[in-house]
Write a structure and sequence with these properties.
The protein is α+β, with helices and mostly antiparallel strands and 273 residues long. It folds into two domains: 118 residues, Diaminopimelate Epimerase, Chain A, domain 1 (Roll), CATH 3.10.310; 113 residues, Diaminopimelate Epimerase, Chain A, domain 1 (Roll). The chain contains four helices and 19 strands. The strands form two sheets. The chain has a 17-stranded mixed beta sheet that branches. It has a two-stranded antiparallel sheet with strand order 9-10. The longest helix has 13 residues. 44% of the residues are buried.
Length: 273
């Protein structure tokens, strides 16, 4: 993708790329050749679907001493996120990077097309999620209305996965914000409702931290798979069906979780920051 000039002048247009994985969409700015000033007010404006370009997350590519590049991630509300599974696949496909550093660590890309990423091992420790105080995480002894006993874990970012009989029957747009901001989750949380449809299939909907209802969530799909595996409900490879489409999730012998699926480039453009 084109990189911006090393020195930005007021009013100078900065190039960006918009991509998506199953409708989970991202704005990408390449700052490997020079700084791009992205502050919360600017991020919120760019992410707004009426007043800006619109996205679920905004990315800035930066130099890395540990990997091919560093992927910095912001939510639409201007808060910073540590990991984004679908976004990592998009960046791998866009740049050809084989190792991508995030705030959650270095992620490895498998294959030549950049569509499969090693997402790491799930961590169910209460401090890793994190939770505000010690308690069991598999499941948690808590409930919010019709949703109860979630599995809490970290996939580089915090997730609470509720297993339900019918994901379509859950008013996630109503209860998701309450759970996301519950004080038990000091860094807020991604809220997933999962329905095990067979040994090889999970249906999933996600209320994403800082973004709201999303067509797809890669780390959320990994979290739902990990929680289902912990209960012995699914085999080592499954299809996770989200509103935006399907992701292929599998567990390696070393416990690392693989995620694969389609990515697409929506368009390229320029914007004044």
């Amino acid at each position: 993708m084109p990189r911006h000039p090393a020195y930005l002048r007021p009013g100078m247009a900065v190039p960006f790329v918009k991509m998506h994985g199953l409708g989970n969409d991202f704005l990408v700015f390449d700052a490997r050749g020079g700084e791009i000033p992205l502050v919360p007010d600017t991020i919120r404006r760019l992410a707004d679907r009426r007043l800006g370009v619109g996205c679920d997350q905004l990315f800035r590519l930066e130099p890395s001493h540990r990997a091919d590049l560093f992927l910095r991630i912001w939510n639409p509300d201007g808060s910073e996120a540590a990991a984004c599974g679908n976004g990592t696949r998009c960046i791998a496909a866009l740049t050809g990077a084989k190792r991508i550093e995030t705030a959650a660590g270095v992620l490895e890309v498998i294959g030549g097309d950049g569509h499969q990423v090693v997402m790491g091992q799930p961590d169910f420790a209460w401090k890793a999620v994190p939770l505000a105080y010690p308690m069991p995480t598999d499941p948690m002894p808590l409930a919010w209305g019709m949703l109860e006993h979630p599995f809490a874990l970290s996939m580089g970012n915090p997730h609470a996965v509720f297993f339900v009989e019918d994901v379509a029957a859950v008013p996630l747009e109503e209860i998701g914000p309450e759970i996301e901001r519950d004080p038990v989750f000091p860094e807020r949380v991604n809220v997933g409702v999962a329905q095990v449809a067979g040994r090889d299939r999970i249906r999933l909907r996600v209320w994403e931290r800082g973004a709201g209802l999303t067509p797809a969530c890669g780390s959320g799909a990994c979290a739902a798979f990990a929680a289902a595996r912990r209960q012995g409900l699914v085999d080592e490879a499954v299809t996770v069906s989200l509103p935006g489409g399907d992701l292929a999730i599998a567990e390696r012998d070393d416990g690392q979780i693989l995620m694969g699926g389609p990515v697409a480039l929506s368009f390229r453009g320029e914007v004044e920051l």
